[in-house]
Task: inverse folding
C-alpha cells in the first residue's frame, strides 16, 4: 500500500511528539509532585488522590523507564503501520495508542484547571498534542484512510491496551 508524503509525516510525528511531550513530564514531574503533593491530596477526590500518589510517586529515572518502554511500543506500532498501511491489527494498535495519547492530553488541561496552576505535560498538550491530533484525524479522514467509526473503536482499543500494560509497567519501573 502506497502512502503519500503527508500521511507518512503524520504517522512518524506520533512517536516524535510523544517523546517531546513525555520529556516535558520527565524533566519536571518529580519536583512538581514533591512541591504540590499536599495540594493534590486536598483538591483531588480521595480515590483520584490515592491513584495519583500510588502511580506517580516515583523518581525521574523510574518514570523514564516507563516512557522508554512506551516509546518503543509506539515506535514499533508506527513502523508497522508505515510498512503495511492502516490494515488489520497494525491499524488498531496504532490508532488505539494514538487515541489514548490524544485523550490523555486533555487530562493535563483538566489538571491545570482543577489545580489552577501549571501541571507537567500541559504545555506540550496545548501547543503540540492537541493541534497535531486534530490535524492527524482531519487529514486521515479527508483521505479516507480512516473513518469516524475507526476513531470511535480505537478509543476502547487504546484503553484496553493501556489497562493491560500500564499498571505492570509502572510496577516494574518502581523496582529500579
Result:
Amino acid at each position: 500500500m502506497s502512502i503519500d508524503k503527508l500521511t507518512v509525516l503524520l504517522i512518524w510525528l506520533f512517536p516524535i511528539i510523544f517523546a517531546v511531550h513525555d520529556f516535558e513530564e520527565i524533566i519536571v514531574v518529580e519536583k512538581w509532585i514533591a512541591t504540590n503533593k499536599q495540594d493534590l491530596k486536598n483538591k483531588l477526590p480521595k480515590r483520584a488522590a490515592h491513584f495519583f500518589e500510588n502511580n506517580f510517586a516515583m523518581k525521574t529515572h523510574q518514570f523514564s523507564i516507563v516512557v522508554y518502554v512506551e516509546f518503543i511500543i509506539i515506535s514499533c506500532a508506527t513502523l508497522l503501520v508505515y510498512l503495511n498501511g492502516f490494515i488489520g491489527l497494525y491499524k488498531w494498535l496504532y490508532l488505539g495508542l494514538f487515541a489514548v495519547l490524544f485523550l490523555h492530553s486533555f487530562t493535563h488541561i483538566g489538571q491545570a484547571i482543577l489545580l489552577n496552576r501549571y501541571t507537567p505535560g500541559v504545555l506540550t498538550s496545548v501547543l503540540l498534542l492537541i493541534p497535531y491530533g486534530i490535524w492527524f484525524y482531519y487529514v486521515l479522514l479527508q483521505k479516507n484512510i480512516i473513518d469516524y467509526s475507526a476513531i470511535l473503536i480505537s478509543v476502547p482499543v487504546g484503553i484496553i491496551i493501556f489497562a493491560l500494560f500500564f499498571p505492570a509497567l509502572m510496577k516494574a519501573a518502581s523496582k529500579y
